[in-house]
Amino acid sequence: MLAMGADGTHKRTTVSLIVPTMDKLSYMSRTLPVNASLGFDEVLVVDSSRREKDQVQALCEKHGARYVFESLDRLAARNRGAELASTDWACICDDDVIIHSFDLDKFRSIAAEGLDYMQGGWGKAADTHYAWIFRRDFFLNVLKGYDPEITGGDDLDITLRAQKLGKGKMVYGSGLYETETVGLDIAKDYPGRWIRNKVLYALTYYPLIRKHPSLAVNFIKSDVWRVQRMLKGTSPGRIVFESFMERAGLVYSPLYYVIRKKRRAR
């Protein structure tokens, strides 16, 4: 499918794959070789590794991916990747996701419907679906990227904003793509990172609820969800820790938000 260029001529709609990563070579060594072979116009890896930088760079060079090193957190790295990309559309993908197939002809056909974003889930039986394929101009200039203040619920936040501000389409199960998540248990694979993430997620509850008040009911439902996970085999210790962090976040995240806001104003 063709898009209208700035000079009034028609050009082929281009799409990039953006992958932020930080010291997760064990995931990247499994996902990048597959994802870089699918025919995206550009595969851009934004690496913030402290220990595995050289290995990640070598992996990118081996598989023809564009490598950029930026000392950024995950959301800022996603946004930076979209800024640096040279394509019309950007697929923003986590480093633990293998994209087994991505039908570029189907993608261009769907994009020609005048969409701003596409949403879907990961894996063969996804029960949550977020926006992760964006018209790049819409992502950068309308959504203004991922909100760096919302570390927990970032995918939900940008999906709700995209639904409010743009035109999108659910593409999960349409034959556009098939994925597999290899990082199913980050608590086991990277326990330090898991604990850090849970703390940061809890500390950013306030800006998420402040922006989307209707989500407050989710905190009531979360205990039911955790009980269901425990019945399916999740460690009770992990459940208790997550529940404690959530409640601590409800208390301390407003203070954390104010402190960060004052720091940014300096």
What Rg, in angstroms, do the CA atoms define? Answer: 19 Å
What is the mean pLDDT? 89
CATH architecture grouping of the largest domain: Alpha-Beta Complex
The poorly predicted ranges are 4-10
What is the CATH homology-level superfamily of the largest domain?
Spore Coat Polysaccharide Biosynthesis Protein SpsA, Chain A
Order of helices and strands: EEEHEHEHEEHEEHHEEHHHHH
User: What is the 3D shape?
Assistant: globular
* Terminal-residue CA separation: 48 Å
CATH-defined topology of the largest domain: Spore Coat Polysaccharide Biosynthesis Protein SpsA, Chain A
Q: What oligomeric arrangement do these chains adopt? A: single chain
Tally of individual helices: 11
How many separate domains make up the residues? Answer: 2
Number of strands: 11
Short structural summary:
The protein has 266 residues and is an alpha/beta fold. It has helices spanning 25-35, 53-63, 74-84, 104-111, 136-142, 154-165, 186-189, 191-203, 205-211, 217-231, 236-265, and strands at residues 2-4, 10-12, 15-21, 42-47, 66-69, 89-92, 97-102, 117-120, 130-135, 168-170, 177-181.
Keywords:
single chain; 266 residues; alpha/beta; Spore Coat Polysaccharide Biosynthesis Protein SpsA, Chain A; 2 domains; two-stranded antiparallel ribbon
Question: Please, could you describe this protein's structure?
Answer:
This protein is α/β, with parallel strands linked by helices. The chain folds into two domains: 2-181, Spore Coat Polysaccharide Biosynthesis Protein SpsA, Chain A; 186-265, no CATH class. Helix content is 48%, strand content 19%. It contains eleven helices and eleven strands. The protein has helices at residues 25-35, 53-63, 74-84, 104-111, 136-142, 154-165, 186-189, 191-203, 205-211, 217-231, 236-265, and strands spanning 2-4, 10-12, 15-21, 42-47, 66-69, 89-92, 97-102, 117-120, 130-135, 168-170, 177-181. The strands form three sheets. The protein has a seven-stranded mixed beta sheet with strand order 5-4-3-6-9-8-10, with helices on both faces. Helix 2 (53-63) links the parallel strand 4 (42-47) and strand 5. Helix 1 runs parallel beside helix 2 (53-63) and helix 10 (217-231) runs antiparallel to helix 11. Residues 4-10 have low confidence and may be disordered.
